[in-house]
Amino acid sequence: MSSRWPVTACSVAPYEIRVCEPLLAEGNRALTEYGHVPGRRFVILDSAVAPSWQDRLLSYFRAHGIQPTFMVVPGGEQCKNLETVGAIIHRLRQFGLDRRNEPVILVGGGAVLDTGGFAASIYRRGVPFIRVPTTLLAYVDASVGIKTGVNVGTAKNLVGAFHPPALVLLDREFFSSLSPRDIASGLGEILKLGLGCDEDLFDMLDAAADTFATTRLRDAAGFTILARSIEVMLDELRPNIFERELCRRVDLGHTFSQAFEMSSLADPLLHGEAVALDLNLSALISVRRGLLSEKESARLANLTDELGLPGVPPAMQPPAVWDSLTERTQHRAGRQRAPLPLRIGECTSVDDLREDEVVDAFRELAARTTAAATADSATRPPRQAAAARLKHVEERP
Ligand SMILES: NC(=O)c1ccc[n+]([C@@H]2O[C@H](COP(=O)([O-])OP(=O)(O)OC[C@H]3O[C@@H](n4cnc5c(N)ncnc54)[C@H](O)[C@@H]3O)[C@@H](O)[C@H]2O)c1
Question: How far is Cα 370 from Cα 348, in angstroms, rounded to an integer?
């Protein structure tokens, strides 16, 4: 005897991404109106954000009759592991979080949002959470989709879940305390969207490149660029939110980037910095294949430099780049599915990259870095030279 019971199980939940400036104004209820448990909230806060923002958050919540319980976690990749997830779960249990009606509030960079989001996705099989991104990269990228996750050993994002946030609240005021390097890193992800998906966005970035040091995208042009970035990102994510299709234009810049972010490097690059290098490497491969013009590749290289993004770290060896592609191939179900730019605003996906062409293109990129460093009158390493262009402008709230 046999019996069959077909079941359709799908998990979809609507959520909203909302610009909400100034988020912490007394009259702004956005951060408190979701949830039905009165008088308290659990807030996970990035340690780099806490010095400037914890007191303001406290005053804001108190003004709304809420006593927040803060858990400050180390910002950046050092928090993105299963130990932090365990610590968060322990604290949620102590707090006695209401499983349905009390959103966990995450305030921080992409690493804290990914880690806190993953904890929320597994605690009692999933509790609601609100993202408040505090870096540029998290604003345009890590906050937008439904992915959460942590690293295991040197494997980035090895463990994770699709768990949509209840709400994403955006406020550019948080950018005021970011380092110039973090601003540049976020610009790297916007550059990816421009190169791979939207020529207008690339042009906007190009036109405003020399303003970001002072404006930190907090002016009208910055607003337009950020809104456009989120729209382009959502156009890519919406039809493929669970990544059933593994050829994704938003994966441009994420084929070789892990090699540049490797923790084994003495000074690993930030995520967006590594993405920008991957874009340039991919562009050089495209030029060698006759897919992209040299002029457009050079335009990309110039803009990368203008945005304050670094060249190839001196310690990087070509095999690491090929290893990164091999790892991505495994992640992409056995096919390379490597996005390559066709022109500014458009890319394709290929499965037949050869090790020799990747290594040759990498050597060309590394040589370009060396040439730029030599030409730099101050003879500073390219990363410092580029970062120096992005003066740190103190704009405390
Ligand atoms: N889930 C996704 O879809 C997705 C997408 C893209 C990236 N990511 C992940 O996001 C992470 C990168 O995010 P990121 O670029 O925000 O870096 P990050 O979270 O590592 O933050 C960078 C640094 O800035 C600090 N910081 C955060 N906000 C600050 C502020 N307002 N002022 C001063 N310092 C501040 C952090 O403590 C950290 O030291 C990576 O782990 C990446 O894998 C996730």
Answer: 29
Protein residue whose Cα sits closest to atom 12 of ligand 1: 110
Measured in whole angstroms, the distance separating CA 155 from the mean position of its chain's CA atoms is 17
Residues found in the chain = 397
CB 239: neighbour CB atoms within 10 A? 9
Pocket of ligand 1 (CB under 6 A): 46, 48-49, 75-77, 80, 108-112, 114, 134-135, 137-138, 141-142, 145, 147, 157, 174, 177-178, 182, 185, 271
DSSP assignment, residue 333? Answer: T
Question: In ligand 1, which atom is closest to the CA atom of 77?
Answer: 20
One-letter amino acid for residue 335 of the chain? R
Tell me which residue has tokens 């050597």. 363
**Atom 2 in ligand 1: which residue has the minimum CA distance?**
142
Ligand 1 atom at shortest distance from the alpha carbon of 145 = 3
Query: CA 396: distance to chain centroid?
Result: 24
Question: In this predicted model, what pLDDT tens digit does every residue of 118-177 receive, in sequence order?
Answer: 999 999 999 999 999 999 999 999 999 999 999 998 888 999 999 999 999 999 999 999
- Per residue in 337-393, pLDDT (tens digit) is 999 999 999 999 999 999 999 999 999 999 998 888 887 655 555 444 444 444 333
